[in-house]
Amino acid sequence: MHIVRTRTELRELVTRWHAGGDTIGVVPTMGSLHDGHLALVRALDGKATRRIVSVFVNPIQFNNAEDFSLYPRGLEADAALLEQTGRVDVLYAPGEGEMYPPGFSTRVLVQGLDKVLCGADRPGHFDGVATVVTKLLLQTGADIAAFGEKDYQQLGIIHRLVADLNLPVTILPVPTVRDADGLALSSRNRRLSPAARQQAAILPATLKTCLAAMKAGQTVAASLEQCRTTLRQAGFDVHYLELRHEDTLLPATQAGPGTRLFVAASLDGIRLIDNMPVT
Ligand code: PAF
What does each C-alpha distance from 45 to 39, 85, 186, 202 come to in angstroms? Predict the structure, then answer.
């Protein structure tokens, strides 16, 4: 596995690969890799003949400087983990100046989907995500790129931008990977204290309870309110817990096919997100 730091070196490689008939699969990440990221790498088995994993903690998607500085980082450990998979050709780890040279002033806005849920909670976040993902897809010459369903809203925004900008890439959604107690894997989980980490399992458990209440005939509004209360009582600061339509992200008043629960809640100041479909 090569570690590539510059666009020029990456361009040379991907041009050669494409000329040789390779299909390039890409997994964009912000590092601090875990099994969820490795599932994205594995999801490209049989779909790509070359794999690139990018690691770049993207400053423009953080609307809070402290959150950016505290975001976990560790390129050496990431490289070792990727090497062990035996599946990755390139770890692309550009510096900030490589991605955003002086004078950089463009933003990709995916209007509508970017204003609700995490977009309302973190203004400007999805502009930063859409901009860096567009750049990464172009820089890597991706034919296929894998993204996790844990960031369901992000996935919808990426589908939209790829369609709207006619980017020649297939987006591969990959199901959320969870720990044994149900907590969705996330680099942010590393920042939880042992006590908070134990407490965090209440988040997915509450989503399940909420889905079960709706299935049992309780109204959507009552089920959501009950579960928000459960989370608050367990010490979470609930940013949102909502039932939305999966495609439009508009609020849903009936739990049925194509609707999904979305939650963002903080524990000890660490923001966790999750989502589960109504089945
Ligand atoms: O999901 C992430 O890790 C990031 O938002 C992404 C897609 C790598 C863009 O920085």
Answer: 10, 12, 22, 33
